[in-house]
Amino acid sequence: MADGTKVRFWKDQWIGQAPFCKKFPASYAESIAKQFIVAQMNMGTNQEEGAWNLNFSQRLYENEVSDMLLILNDF
Length: 75
Description:
It is built from 4 helices and no strands. It is mainly alpha-helical. The protein has one domain (about 20-75). The longest helix has 12 residues, at about 60-75. It is globular. The chain starts with 19 loop residues before the first helix and ends with a helix. It comes from Macleaya cordata.
């Protein structure tokens, strides 16, 4: 994946066996950043390492967000 400037966070398969839009459909539906690339979602260079700005329009189901963050924290 290199630096994440060409890989779409939600629609490309970059971690695991499926794109995040398929693995976390409720989260994808509430995202206001559906076309963002990985580099736009990762705040590691500006904030604490491994911080993600997932850009949701409203509060989501806690279990789905928790599952997604577990995957991202291993990245």
